[in-house]
Structure formats: C-alpha cells, structure tokens
Amino acid sequence: MAPGHFHAALIQKSMYKRVDSTVNVFAPDGPEVKNYLVSINEYNSRKEKSTSWKEKVYIGPDYLEKMLTVKPGNVVVISGNNRMKTDYIKKCVDAGLNVLADKPMTISKAGFDELKTAFAGAGKKKVLLYDIMTSRYEMSNILQKAFSQVPELFGELQKGTLENPGMVSERVHFFYKEISGVPLTRPDWYFDVKS
User: Could you tell me which CATH number the domain at 7-135+171-191 has?
Assistant: First the structure.
C-alpha cells in the first residue's frame, strides 16, 4: 500500500513459492508509485532470475479506505512516508491484516504509543506485525553481536561520557544510492526530517 520507498519493490525482487504472483497496489497518484511499478517491471523483464509479478493497481486519493474495504489479500506491505506509516499500520491491524512494514515504523512519541497499541492489537487478532528490515537478522550481524559478547575476542566496553563515548556506531545513508543497479530517485518528503 502506498509504496513510496524502494523497500516495497525489494520485497518483490524474488518470487516466493507460497505467495500469489498477483499483487494489489493501492496508492495515491504520484512519482512514488510510478517508480515502484518501474522497479517491478524491471524485475519481471530482467534476463536472470526474472520475476512474474502481476500488478493490479488502484490509484486514487481514497487508496487506504479502498484497500481496507476490498481487502484482496491477508498481507499488506507498508513502505513509504514515515509520518503516516504508524496510522496505516494500526488501521491495517485493526482490519485483521498481517503487516510487513519497513523502518522506521514510527518517528514520534505519539506514533510510538500508537505502534504499541497496534502490536497489542495484532496479538489479540492473531495477525503478524513484522519489521521487514532484514539486515539485523543477517548472519554477519548476528555473528558480530555474538562476538561482541565474548570478552576474550571483543574486550570490555569502557565507561563513556558525552564527550568520549565508550562505543560509536555509524551508518551512512547517502543521498545518491543505487538499488538493483538503478539510481534511486527519492521523493520530496524523504528530505523532510518529520516525514
């Protein structure tokens, strides 16, 4: 739904044995959904490991209401504008849909409270609410964490201060990025720290 970030397309980089090849897309009109559809077409038409997704697209300002009314499946992928994401997650869980959402699931204190309510609701409705950012479950990250727990390998953390932290972790997201060999076009809202 509203695939405004490339993570939505990356979910469809491969085919899955137990997942229907028909994907229903509900989105507002704009460059985000167009870029998403271009990515899916590129995956479908590549020479090696091509996919065979069939996109059924609904474009309109009432995309969320339409998706919740039609409910053409039981799983929704949410990857887009972070300002609206938590509300989308909660409404989809309330409708009994399994939700796969990218990071961050929320960007505000109010959103965090709503997200906690969504997780509680998912438990009650017995639906899945899952973070699709797989790098934290990747083997190299799991090993790195395991090695950091072995003092003979890692050593011990020093007590840090604000001026001299005991540990520094840095991840850099560049404005220019290639995904599947294609330059990524970021939507305007990407550059707004509140989105």
Answer: 3.40.50.720
